[in-house]
Fold this sequence. Notes:
Blueprint: H1 9-14, H2 35-43, H3 46-51, H4 53-66, E1 72-73, H5 81-84, E2 89-92, E3 96-99, H6 106-111, H7 117-120, H8 122-135, E4 142-147, H9 149-158, H10 166-174, H11 176-200, E5 204-209, H12 212-215, H13 218-224, H14 226-236, E6 243-247, H15 254-260, E7 264-266, H16 273-280, E8 285-290, H17 299-313, E9 319-323, H18 333-346
Parallel strand pairs: 1-4, 4-5, 5-6, 6-7, 7-8, 8-9
Antiparallel strand pairs: 2-3
Helix pairs in contact: 4-8, 9-11, 11-14, 14-15, 16-17, 17-18
The structure holds coproporphyrinogen III.
Coproporphyrinogen III binds next to strand 3.
Amino acid sequence: MTNSEPTSRFxxxxxxxxxxxxxxxxxxxxxxxxxxxxxxxxxxxxLEMITTPELAAEITLQPIEAFDLDAAIIFADILPxxxxxxxxxxxxxxxxxxxxxxxSSAEDIKRILTPPTEQILSPTLEAIKLVTQELEPRNxxxxxxxxxxxxxxxxxxxxGGSKDYAKTKALMYSDPASWQLLMEKLVTVQADYLxxxxxxxxxxxxxxxxxxxxxxGQESYKRFVAPYNxxxxxxxxxxSVPVINFxxxxxxxxxxxxxxxxxxxxxxxRMPLGAAWGKIGFxxxxxxxxxxxxxxxxxxxxxxxxxxxxxxAAGRPGHIFNxxxxxxxxxxxxxxxxxxxxxxxxSSN
Length: 349
Ligand code: CP3
C-alpha cells in the first residue's frame, strides 16, 4: 500500500475507502466485441498483438476511449509465460489456445524452465509503461495480471482447454511430488511476472484461477492448489499494490479461496454477491459479479440483473462492479456503454 490515500474510485474501493459511486471495469473489456479490436486482429496474430508493445498499448486503451471505465487492464493473456517455460503455444483462430508439446511425464516437468520476466515477457512490461504514461494524467489505474498455477498447469498438461481436466488430475493424484515441482515452478515465474508488472507501473494485479473451481472439490483444492496460491499471494505483498484473487466455480469453498490471499476477491455469478461477501468476510473488498450473458438480453433484463448485484452490495465500502467472467464476443457495444453509465448513475451518493 502507498502511504498517501489513492484518489481513483477503483483503488479506493480496493482499500474499502468511501467513494462517490461504484467503480466498474470488465474482464475482457478489450476484445472481439469491439470493431476497433477486430480491425487490428484482422492484420495481426494474437501473439503479435501481445508482443508488440505499441499494439498491446493501443488495444488496452480502446475500451477506455469508448466507455467511462474506472480501470484499464493490460492487453495480454495468461498463457504467454508458458512459452518462456519451454512450451510451444499457438492461438488457433476458431479453436483457442493450443500447446503443441504438452507436459506428459515427470521428466517433462523437470525440464520446465523458470526464466526471469525480463527475458521472456519484456514486451508486456514495455506496453505497461506506454499505457501508464497515457493513463496517469487521467487518474485511471492500470491492472496487471497473470494466471494462477492450477489454471496454467491445466493448459500445460491438457495441451489446451478441457472439459474434465482428466490428464491434469491424473498427474496430480498419481504423482504428487511432480505436481508440487510443477506448481512451485509456476509460482516462481508468475510471482516474478506480477512483481515486474507492478514495477513497470501496474497499480493493481489480478490473479486468474479460472478453472481450479470447475475441476476440483474442496478437499483437493486445499491439498493441491491452496498451498501454492497462498505462497504466490504472499510473494505479491512485495508489490505494494492491491491484488485481486479471481476464480470461478469456487462458490462452495469460497472461504478457502479467500484464505489464500488478495485484498480483493473476484467472484463469479453462481452465488448472489451478498452471500459470497458473507463467506469472504466484509473486511475484504469484493469484485463482481454480473453474468456476462445478461448483456446479450434486452436492456430491461440486463438492468434487472445489474440492480440485483448493486442491491446485494448494499452500498458497503469495497465493491468493484465487474462481470462474473469475461465479456462474450457477441456482446453489443451499446450494452456495454449503457451498463457502465447506468452503474455510475444508479450507485452515486
Ligand atoms: O481482460 C482483458 O481485456 C485483458 C486481456 C485478456 C485476454 N485473456 C485477452 C484474450 C485476459 C485478462 C485474458 C485472460 C485469460 N486468457 C484467461 C483467464 C480469464 C478467463 O476467461 O477465465 C484464460 C483462461 C485465457 C486463455 C485464453 N485466451 C482462451 C481460453 C482463449 C480463447 C477463447 C476466446 O475467447 O477466443 C484466449 C484468447 C484471447 N485472450 C482472446 C483475447 C482478446 C481472443 C483472441 C482473438 O482475438 O482471437
